[in-house]
Automatic annotation (TrEMBL):
This is Transcriptional regulator, GntR family protein. It comes from Streptomyces bingchenggensis (strain BCW-1). One of its GO terms (biological process) is negative regulation of DNA-templated transcription. GO terms for molecular function: DNA binding; DNA-binding transcription factor activity. CDD domains: WHTH_GntR. Keywords: DNA-binding, Transcription, Transcription regulation. Residues 9-77 form the HTH gntR-type domain. Pfam families: GntR.
Amino acid sequence: MSLPNNDPRPPYQLAANRLRAEITSGHLKPGDRLPSSRELRDTLGIANATVHAALRVLRDEGLIYSVHGRGNYVADPKQHPTVDPIGELASEWAGEFTLDYTPPAWYTQYKESAQADHVKAGPPPPVTVDQTASLAEILLGVREQLRHVTGEVVSLRQQIAGLEEKVSRLENPDVN
């Protein structure tokens, strides 16, 4: 009972189709144990991984179920209706998704102080390019912008270091 060689479909699909046909024809009835993976491998002439892929397809379709250490069995459609997990998730998520989250106080305080610092500092000076400016003048303007950005980076690094120190003190109060 080997699989056809001239069929372009992957072997696991062919094996799944063969087992599906035996189930739907009534040759294998609900509750019947399927042949073992080794028996299917030898009978169908396919690799063990291919057998497992075919069984996974049938399991996903709800035609069979597995009992660990016992084997695979034909499912009873009345007891094991086919489940559409995507449809279930879609129906669960059909409403508005909300998340009840309140950030911790330290984060709120930090964010407010960072925003206040940003407002005090104001926006960085705009880069203006004069059509008649020389390349040297343009480079000086770019250098000034880099100094400004570098200063902001240094300030942010200092703030991060301060926060890390505070967190360390909160996590290890006995060390101080």
